[in-house]
Amino acid sequence: MHDFDIDAERIKLERLLGASEGSLAYLSTTHSSLVRAFREDFSDALYRRHQDNYARLAKLSRVLPVGVSAKLAETVLGAVLGAGVAGEMDPDRAGKLAGKLSAAFLAKLSVHLEPHRATKIIGKIPQAVIVAVAQELARKEEYITLARFVTAIDSQTLHAVMDAIPSADALLRVGIFVEQRESLSDLLEQLSGQRRQDILAAATKAKLWPQMLVLMTHLNDKMKGIMGDAVVALGDDLMAFILETCREHKLWEPLILTVANMSADNRRLVLALPLLHDMEMLKSLLDDIHNENLWPLFAHLWTDASEQTLTCSFEVLADNGEWLAGLLRAATDAGLQGELKKELQRLPSPLYERLALAAKASCRDELAALMTTVD
Predict the structure, then answer these.
(1) Average pLDDT, consecutive stretches of 10 residues, N- to C-terminus, the chain (375 residues)
(2) DSSP labels for 130-175?
(3) Gap between the Cα atoms of 56 and 7, Å rounded
(4) In whole angstroms, how far apart are CA 200 and each of 108, 195, 317?
(5) What Å distances lie between residue 163 and 115, 120, 132, 134, 153, CA to CA?
(6) Which residues contact 110 (CB under 8 A, 6 or more apart)?
(7) What is the Cβ-side half-sphere exposure of residue 222, based on CA atoms within 13 angstroms?
(8) What is the DSSP-derived secondary structure letter of residue 299?
């Protein structure tokens, strides 16, 4: 599976180094976590190198009126130096100073400001100023910067910011670049059901479903279900497109986890889709289930599968003893022998006989014995 996070990390590193976008494309085979760790270490090293100078300038700003400091910041210091100085300022004074600076300048400054150095300052900045800066960043399509700061503001301000950004495409791209992925569920919780559907539609229009599926893995179970139900509401054509995307990019795990948390009715609709009767599609799905050890989840999910989907799935399993053993082992470990028996009873007799032979040839005796318990 492609590491889709590497693209975001590469762009952030290019910005830090002052390199043109795309100049570090050779990093595309490096894992995103390594690039992120290097970027954070390098950023800290750059900051420490000039920290004394930043501290002296921050100290000097204390003796000047706030209005004068704001004027000097915009006309003399500039955004890059101003970001460094902000990290050394008293939070209360920095918050007052931000109220005197233009949204355009603050937007430029925030591009160069590390969120972890500005958390206390952000808490002192008036909500109206933060919203104005967020709108300016969205207007300039500075989604990386927006993404780095949405997790540093309180929930009330976050709600105001998201209301102030009407573009579903912008919200989607902010989500792609968010570093604290555990916060994504909280971000989506702020939105109405219609806006969540709009984000899904934006992913389709922008051809960003691989990235959207990666984001889904970071949602809590409740939000996985909500987003999954929203996908189903957008129709079978979208679900078919997502299945093709999963096959192309080997992204079955996020889809399986999402389907598991959908409402039961929607889960049954998904598991009855005609594409899940395609043998090549099922081979791709089952291969990912085996590689990611998702057999226990598969065993639970397939109790909601249509008879045709179930039959086609076991047709594939009958030709792969290793996969069949994985399913039987998972059913045994999870105490699902009874459920498995019910599913096997739904199969045509010739197919069941093939499965029994495959189990005897490929599975341990205790696993193969499961196949003989069906009446």
Answers:
(1) 77 87 90 91 88 86 81 84 85 88 91 82 89 94 88 86 92 89 88 94 94 93 96 94 94 94 95 95 95 87 88 92 87 80 83 84 71 58
(2) HHHHHHHHHHTT-HHHHHHHGGGS-HHHHHHHHHH---HHHHHHHH
(3) 37
(4) 30, 9, 33
(5) 22, 24, 12, 11, 14
(6) 83, 133, 137, 145, 149
(7) 5
(8) H
Compute CA distances 6 → 27, 30, 111, 300, 346, whole Å. 8, 7, 19, 33, 45
Closest to 286 in 3D by CA, of 329, 315, 262:
315
Residue 334 half-sphere exposure, CB side, CA atoms within 13 Å? 17
Give the H or E element holding residue 370: none
* Tokens encoding 121: 């300052």
Tokens of 265: 């009715």
Q: What is the pLDDT of residue 2?
A: 65
Assigned token pair, 44: 């800290």
Q: Which of 303, 229, 238 is nearest to 259 (CA)?
A: 229
Q: Which one-letter amino acid corresponds to residue 232?
A: V
DSSP 69-90: HHHHIIIIIHHHHHHHHHTTS-
Chain mean position to CA 19: 26
Nearest CA-CA partner of 342 in 300, 297, 289, 281:
300
- Residue 16 has phi, psi (to 5 degrees) of -60, -40
Q: How far apart are CA 191 and CA 197, in angstroms?
A: 10
Q: Is 177 helix (H, G, I), strand (E, B) or coil?
A: helix
pTM above 0.70, yes or no: yes
Question: How far apart, in Å, are the Cα atoms of 30 and each of 13, 25, 36, 52, 247?
Answer: 13, 10, 10, 34, 23
The domain ranges of the chain are 1-179, 193-270, 271-375
Q: Give the helix/strand (H/E) hosting 2.
A: none
Compute and round to an integer the Cα radius of gyration of the chain. 26
If you search the block for the tokens 């501290």, which residue do you land on? 55
